[in-house]
Each structure stands twice: as structure tokens, then as C-alpha cells.
Amino acid sequence: MNSFLSPAAQALTGIHAATICPMDADGQIVESELTQHLNDISHADGIRGLLLNGHAGEGHLLTREERNLVLSAARACTPSDCVLTAGITSESTAAACIEAEDAAKAGADAVLVFQPNHWAGGCDAAIVTAHHRAIANASGLPLVLYRAPISGHLSYDMAVMEKLLEIDAVAGIKEGSWEVAAYEELWRHVKVARPDISVMGSGDEHLLTSYMIGSDGSQVSLAAIIPDTITALFNTAEASDWAKARQLHDVLYPLSTAIYRDRPGYLATARLKTCLKLLGRIGHDTTKAPIRPLRADEVSRLQAVLEAAGLMLKERI
Predict the structure, then answer these.
(1) What is the DSSP track for 157-210?
(2) Which of 133, 234, 240, 269 stands the most exposed, by the fewest C-beta atoms within 10 Å?
């Protein structure tokens, strides 16, 4: 492990799976399947933590009661050393603070702050840092920053990132810019300005490239489908076994592009759930409205990718 990292940042290293939230045909959480999902993933070899109520977990669409249910279930069924990061997705600072307080009470170890969607219309560093500071103060937990894909309108530029790095509570960054040059720029900057912070390369399509540049770990939803492959990729990269790492990358790349690169991008969560249903791990692939269900041809594409990679027979946790 990186000896420069703070204890809170050390917890945010290795592979953390961004989990989904199983639902029945009516969009209600199936608690038994949720517990099974969280238990299975958290006990997979090499998984160090879980990201709960993030985008993959539909945290932005769940009610307060549903988000708390997910967190409480996770704390009850995961190993004691499993690091639980709670996604904070509320639009207002006041609501985000309540969400963060709830997470701390439910036993979360850290909070990951997602950008309010209305920031797509514009915001400045003062607003962004004030939002994060308020959440940190409300929760009393280590803070994880989220750098959104730069192809959208919510990604922080380096000027904003520099201001966020001034917040003492920041222990990690989920670097999801989805652009290799942007990732490397931030990695190099943080390792000079705040070497105590964990930078987690979290672009599912280019994990291998991130690991070659340097990464303390990842918070990724692919680890909720193929945890063994993702942890093996990280471990082989840590060992500089690049030939083996490339083989593993070739296995996961078609799946990552089918889930994340295919348009429209907002169906990524639906695709994750469909993959888990096809693998026999959940009963329904229902998502909260307004996310629409996948069409038959979209399901067939995912099944073909899983079969081509041999995943219909492997990775059955």
C-alpha cells in the first residue's frame, strides 16, 4: 500500500464494487435479493468495499427510507472490514446533509458526493466547495469526490478540483472522467498536492490504462457482475504482469462497452441489472422509473456478449 495515504484513504484502496438494488416487477426493493447481492459481492475474493446508493444503485431515484434500507442491510450482512461508501445524490445542500447524516447513522465509513444535476447549467468553485464542506460537517465521515465524465456538463475542471482538495475531510477521489489524459493530469496533480488522498481509477472501459498510469483502486459497477475478473485485473497490474492484465482486459472490454458506451448512456443501470438477471443472480431487472426497461434486442446483445466471454458459466458467485 502507498505509505503516504492517510488511514481513511488506505480504506479507499483496492476494488470496491458499486452495487445495484434488486427490485420486483413493481419497482419495490426485494430485501432478500438485496441482502444476497450485497453478501455475495462483499465476500468475493479481493473485494475491499462497496459503493452503495450510487448511480448503479439508483440512489438518486430511491426514497430516503429505501436508501437507509440499503445501507442498513449492507452493514448487517457484509464483513466487518468491508468499507461501505454511501453515495450522496440530493439536489439541495440541506437534503444532501440529511442524506449524509443518515449514512453515518447507518454505519457508512465514507460518503461519495455526486454532483447535483442542476449544476449542468453552471456553477462555480465556491458553490461546489461549500456544498462538499457542509456534507463533510454533517456526516463527520471521510469525503470521496466524484469527477464525472468530461463528455457531459458536470465534470469538475482542474481549478475546481484544486479548491476541493483544500477540504481536509477529502480522503479519496472516484475518478470517472472517462478520458485518459484527464485522468493522468489529475493523478499527477493529486500525488504532489495531496499525496494522502486515494485516487481511484473508475472508468470501467479503461481500467487497464488507469492502472498502468497509476491508481490506488477503483469503485466500479462491473465488480458487481464480474468481481473475480476486476480484482484479478487490479492485482496483476499491481504485480506489473501486463501480459496477464491485457488478457483480463480483453475479457471485460466487450462487456464494459456494451454497458457503458452504447447509447443512450442512461440505460447503463438497466444493462447492469439485465446482466445479473441473465446470470441468474436476481429475479427481475426492473429499474425505478423513469429508467425504461430494455428492449428484446438490447437484452439479446448483452446475452451474446456474456456468452462470448464465457461469463454465462463463470463468475457465478
Answers:
(1) -HHHHHHHTT-TTEEEEEE----HHHHHHHHHHHHHH-TTSEEEE--GGGHHHH
(2) 240
Q: Give every CB contact of residue 141 below 8 A, 6+ residues apart in sequence.
A: 100, 103, 104, 108, 109, 110, 111, 169
| Interhelix angle 242-260/268-278, nearest 10 degrees | 110
Q: Beta partners for 25?
A: none
Terminal Cα distance for the chain, rounded: 27
Determine, yes or no, domain membership for 188.
yes
Q: What is the pLDDT of residues 165-197, one digit of tens each?
A: 999 999 999 999 999 999 999 999 999 999 999
Q: How many angstroms separate the Cα of 290 from the Cα of each of 14, 55, 180, 293?
A: 33, 14, 31, 9
Overall number of domains in the chain: 1
Q: In whole angstroms, give the CA distance from residue 201 to residue 214.
A: 8
Residue 198: domain span: 7-229
CATH code assigned at 105: 3.20.20.70
pLDDT digits (tens, 9 = 90+) for 254-312: 999 999 998 898 999 999 999 999 999 999 999 999 999 999 999 999 999 999 888 75
Q: Is residue 67 part of a domain?
A: yes
Domain-located, residue 259? no
